[in-house]
Amino acid sequence: xxxVRPISPTEHRDYLDSIPSAxxxxxxxxxxxxxxxxxxxxxxxxxxGQQAGAALVLYRKLPRLKRYLAxxxxxxxxxxSADRLEEWLTPLVRHLxxxxxxxxRIGPPVVTTxxxxxxxxxxxxxxxxxxxxxxxxxxxxxxxxxxxxxLSDLGWRHQGVEGGFAAGQPQFVFQxxxxxxxxxxxxxxxxxxxxxxxxxxxxxKAAKEGVEVRASAPEHAREDLKAFHDLYVHTxxxxxxxPRPLAYFETMYDALNADAPDRLxxxxxxxxxxxxxxxxxxxxxxxxxxxxxxxxxxxxxxxxSNAVQWEMIRDAIAAGAAVYDLRGITDTLDAxxxxxxxxxxxxGTGGEAVEYAGEWDLPINRALYKAxxxxxxxx
Length: 379
Description:
The protein is α+β, with helices and mostly antiparallel strands. The protein folds into two domains: 3-107 and 359-378, Aminopeptidase (3-Layer(aba) Sandwich); 112-139 and 159-356, 3-Layer(aba) Sandwich (Aminopeptidase), CATH 3.40.630.30. It contains twelve helices and 16 strands.
């Protein structure tokens, strides 16, 4: 019978190094970023004793009670194509219950649906289309459908999205495939040709205007993180969101890069000495993510945001990544919705919209789970 037991952070890292990729939210380093939560690394072991999976669990404590929501963001890392997922999930839940969990939340990293950039663009232009789900997809994944069906049958509850953004991690993202269907790596020219005319023109304009993009060297990490953060706070004030403190990004940089060198990079785009765009990029194996971004209100005409994205894409290609992930989008295609501008920016890269299975909860103690939902709704 498959089993689940605690493993050390080193064992956890070694397992992730043995597979093509996993979400950075399932790395031991992410536990250090979310240090306010109790954490645990778990290993999944088959009947033969061989490790077949791993998980980072974040335990979120209920107020005044020693009971926890056990959260596995974008995990666990398993073979999700298995015909009997309960053989892995049952020992997982049993272990988490023994650790005081009143409920478990998982985020299977399984794709269910894909749409091409052209389909998304046409959907935005169609006044009768309001949601991405109204557009016939290029692909419906049989594996994804099987995972969703199994979780439903096992009593797990899908956590719906509001306006396309889940309460935890995004269910809808935009990605640029860096390999063809047969596994052949795409070149820089291949990716550039897939972009729309505006993106290609903006990349050329940034180069003509003299925008210089570089990745931060480790010895300059602190000063470059500070420069990124200053611009990020400026962006937050302009776009009306609450910024994270600088200490959060310093911890993130240290923790992820302790797992593997260059796992997180700071990218800075300057024009005549002025910082016009700055980003954070993460890569685990064959998957590269655009994680955070900031841009100046001034000098937007030099197209620093396009320039820094292009350099991150080029870096991902050079590293052998299979996908460049621009992270979350909403599922709205309503041209009047304020979120559509973000989708249009990402669609211009010529990639594809991707829907994942989303996040799923399994209540263990139904009374505490209901109380927890009420608590969250009141916050």
